[in-house]
Design a protein that fits this description.
Blueprint: H1 7-17, H2 22-68, H3 75-141
Organism: Seohaeicola saemankumensis
Protein name: Phasin, PhaP
Amino acid sequence: MTNQPDVAAMFKDAMAAFPIDGSAAEGAFKSTAALNEKLSTVTLDAFGKSADVSSTWAHDTVKLMTEASKAKESPADYMQAMSDFAAGYSKLASAHMAAFTEIAKTAQADSMALMTDAGKGFTAEATAAVNTATKKAEAATK
């Protein structure tokens, strides 16, 4: 019979041949976690504001519908009520869509600012890591 290779030992040897700086990985994890937290805050804030706008829009629509559904004296009054409802709803839609647009623009601007700052931070960390590795390599070759 043949001997089975010790896979665990092979992996251990391979990992020893390519040492990994755990502090760099930990720093990258912490940076990523912090960025994700900030992006989640932007997202949840936008969601909360959107929910508020949706709720307000629904309440305002119900008010318009309540007025339109009241009994009228003549058929012309019903036509006027429907016309008033349509005009009122059009104004509501315009106002609330503008509010949604502002929420989206704010979320987009905040996200872009976070990503730009994160990119600058990651670039600085990568530059520092490369400089450290270069110094270690130069020292090893001497």
